[in-house]
Amino acid sequence: MIKLRLKRFGKKREVSYRIVAINSDARRDGRPLEEVGFYNPRTDETRLDVEAITRRLEQGAQPTQTVRHILEKANLLEKRKIAFKTAAQPEVKAEA
């Protein structure tokens, strides 16, 4: 399975991340299939390749929770209305 996840790079205590499409059983800093974005948590800077991310999600790639949050923050998931599997979450039942 292909995942969209963060790949760490940068100096100690000056970390930033690349958002990559990578095989789910590969190492965190392993060789990615494709780099689709950049995220710097210190400055909250985000650069996304919207076409590449959309293409990967349509092919069935699953974003991690952190990447999903970054994509939702950029309104990318809402704009494209991309359906993907979510982790099992407990259902809340409303009482009458």
Task: List the keywords.
single chain, 96 residues, alpha+beta, S16 Ribosomal Protein, Chain: A, five-stranded mixed β-sheet, 3 helices, 5 strands, 24% helix, globular
Helix content: 10-25%
The SSE string, one letter per element, is EEEEHEHH
Which CATH first-tier class would you pick? Alpha Beta
- Rounded mean pLDDT score: 83
- Could you please say which CATH topology applies here? S16 Ribosomal Protein, Chain: A
**Spatial order of strands in the largest sheet:** 4-3-2-1-5
List low-confidence stretches. Answer: none
DSSP strand tally: 5
Bulk shape = globular
Class inferred from helices and paired strands? alpha+beta
How far apart, in Å, are the first and last alpha carbons? 41 Å
Portion in strands: 25-35%
Number of domains: 1
Describe this protein's structure.
This protein is of the alpha+beta class. The protein has a single domain, classed as Ribosomal protein S16 (S16 Ribosomal Protein, Chain: A). It contains three helices and five strands, in the order E-E-E-E-H-E-H-H. It has helices spanning 50-58, 65-73, 76-80, and strands at residues 2-11, 14-23, 34-40, 45-48, 62-63. The protein has a five-stranded mixed β-sheet. A hairpin with a 2-residue loop joins strand 1 (2-11) and strand 2. The longest helix has 9 residues, at 50-58. The protein is globular, with a radius of gyration of 15 Å.
